[in-house]
Amino acid sequence: MVVHTVTSLDEYRKLAKKHEKIIIKFTAEWCGPCRMIAPIFESLSDEAKDIHFISVDVDNSSDISSEFGIKAMPTFVFIRFEDKINEFRGADRNKLTDFTKALKDL
User: Fold this and answer.
1) Which of 34, 37, 82, 100 fits 91 for a cystine, CB–CB 3.0-4.6 Å?
2) Where is the Thioredoxin domain (predicted)?
């Protein structure tokens, strides 16, 4: 699976209506930890086929960032049926893997 780059709140809302499970990675080009965790996020998108993976650059998509109250990067938001069920901040590989597995198992 591929990581879908989303640039507007409208675009996100359309995807949220189409996909039961979504993980959003809020990132920025200048963010070192974001660059470090990016390959892990992409790898998980290959493993968890039933989850839609989205990347949002906070500098280019302030409406989505504001909607989710993002204050730090990277932040990962886990969505099921258009509702946020979990979130964490930081480039923690184990946490990202565990939270992805938990969403997959729902």
Assistant:
1) 37
2) 1-106
